[in-house]
Amino acid sequence: MRDFGVFCSLVLLCCCCISQAEIFTSIGQMTDLVFTEKELVQSLAEYIKAEEAKLAAVKSWANKLDSLTKISTSDPEGFLAHPVNAYKLVKRLNTEWSELESLVLQNPSDGFISNMTAHRRYFPDEEDETGAARALMRLQDTYQLDSEAFAQGKLPGTHSNARLTVDDCFGMGKTAYNDGDYYHAVLWMQQALRQLDAGDEAEVVKSDILDYLSYSVYQMGDLPRALELTRRLVAIDPNHQRAGGNLRYFEVLLSKQMKEQNQAFEPATEEPIQLGTYTRPRDHLPEREAYEALCRGEGLQMNEARRSHLFCRYRDGRRNPRLLLRPLMEEDEWDSPRIVRYIDFLSEREMSKIKELAKPRLERATVRDPKTGVLTTAQYRVSKSAWLEGEEDPLIERVNQRIEDVTGLTVETAELLQVANYGVGGQYEPHYDFSRRPFDSSLKADGNRLATFLNYAPQ
User: Fold this and answer.
1) How far apart are CA 122 and CA 35, in angstroms?
2) Would 147 disulfide with which of 57, 191, 192, 226, CB 3.0-4.6 Å?
3) How is the chain split among helix, strand and coil, in percent rounded to 5?
4) Which residues partner with 9 through β-bridges?
5) How far apart are CA 248 and CA 253, in angstroms?
6) How do 363-364 and 381-388 pair as beta strands?
7) Is the separation of the CB atoms in 332 and 340 below 8 Å?
8) Rounded Cα gap, residues 156 and 235, in angstroms
9) Dihedral of the CA atoms 10, 11, 15, 21 (nearest 10)?
């Protein structure tokens, strides 16, 4: 009997957190951050209101005393000649000024700080921010999104006006730079520079952007442009600690390169750096281009002749008593390999309950290290998973039974029900999900073939 794995995906729409540095890997847990931020905003509004009330009271007191002291100081002896004025002066300095001192020393921020402290342990950390930035760049590559369109929030299938500021773009570029990913560093530093030149406000200064951009362009092998960018940097910051040295180094290097290639100097093009200006370096995955093309819906397409052989039907599990009165709708999605979809296999109530059971147990999905055999996390698998047993809830038992009924297989030899929740730019790259069993000496060669068994292991 073949092993049968069940994968149930939680799909939510946007960012409590079980463990640090892994928040970005699960949208399901990131949704709690939305409500955490809302609570903090409410707490901040209360703090502002308390501060405004405090300042209003102090301002009222100051205005009253300002008028009073103008009278008292114009003729101190005449003012104090009136016994009521003398009494009230003593009273003010003995009692009322002390009360004002206590009012000024009050700190309305205590409640807000206390609330912040309670929530801070659930906040994302620097590794989460870095992981989220890498995820955006992964989406940019997979769907071939230009940095400018990305920064303006013009993403396929979205209707939000979320935008990236100059500082956001600079942060993206710096993340790539620190990873040694100069290809993406160039794209995002260039976008930060473009928005800054267009008049957008920012905390980062142009010299810092040019510093990172010029060196990243140099690392991409574009010496003329690196030289031009460094000249711009020197022009706006002649005392920059690295710019002068880099400028001389690039000039010598470019002169030597032109002499070796017997070429005349050609100034850098004025065209802005865009997606496609430089070639993205190849990485560890040989199937990268095909994998990303499939994500974009490219590649092998279903033609009309093949589609005519795809059908919909009701499936009763070969007259299974539990499906006779309520058969499942089965739809052919693909012919080779055969892929079918079951319509309304789970109800909304069942899906909500499965999410409820899984959410507290979500942990970063792991892969098996091919060298050590130890389960570990990996950048190419960005998600969190939970495993649910039939004994834990009657609903899981019913779902398992339904799987057996419609497939004719048994879940006794299958993985547990897996709930996978993907995060920002969540992915699971192409991989070989098996390990080889030790060779059985009883197996004999048959012609040019040698029988082997594949053991599909849970990840």
Assistant:
1) 12
2) 191
3) 50, 10, 35
4) 420
5) 9
6) antiparallel
7) yes
8) 40
9) 40
Q: Are 417 and 396 in contact (CB under 8 A)?
A: yes
Segment 167-190 shows an average pLDDT of: 94
pLDDT, position 209:
95
pTM over 0.85: no
Is residue 361 within 8 Å of 384, Cβ to Cβ?
A: no
Q: How long a stretch of residues is the chain?
A: 459
- Burial label for 230, CB within 10 Å (0-12, 13-18, 19+), is buried
Three-state SS for 288? Answer: helix
Terminal alpha carbon distance of the chain: 20
3-state secondary structure of 202: coil
DSSP 48-86: HHHHHHHHHHHHHHHHHHHHHHHHHHHSHHHHHTSHHHH
* In the block, residue with structure tokens 């103008």: 70
CA-CA distance, 268 to 226, in Å (whole number)?
8
Burial category of 441 from C-beta neighbours within 10 Å (exposed 0-12, middle 13-18, buried 19 and up): exposed
| Tokens, residue 135 | 């995820």
Distances in whole angstroms, Cα of residue 437 to Cα of each of 186, 434, 451: 46, 10, 12
For the record, the structure tokens of 413 come out as: 């030899």
pLDDT per position as a tens digit, 83-125: 677 766 777 777 777 877 887 877 877 777 787 787 777 777 8
Render pLDDT for 57-80 as a digit per residue (tens, 0 to 9).
Answer: 888 888 888 888 888 888 887 777
Contact 153, 160 (CB under 8 A): yes
- As to burial, measured by CB atoms within 10 angstroms (0-12 exposed, 13-18 middle, 19+ buried), residue 384 is buried
Return phi, psi of residue 200, to 5°.
-65, 145
* Residue pair 383/365 in contact by the 8 Å Cβ criterion: yes
State the average pLDDT over residues 166-170: 93
pLDDT in tens, 325-365: 899 999 999 998 899 999 999 999 999 999 999 999 999 88
Contact in structure between 23 and 128 (CB atoms under 8 Å) = yes
H helices within 378-417, ranges in order? 394-407
Cβ-based neighbours of 183, under 8 Å, separated by 6 or more: 176, 220, 278, 280, 281
Beta strands 7-10 and 417-428: pairing type?
parallel
**Helix (H) / strand (E) containing 369:** none
CA nearest to 428, candidates 370, 386, 367: 367
Distance CA 140, CA 275 (A): 9
Given a contact cutoff of 8 angstroms between Cβ atoms, the answer to whether 384 and 29 are in contact is yes
Helical ranges in 121-164 per DSSP H? 126-142, 147-151
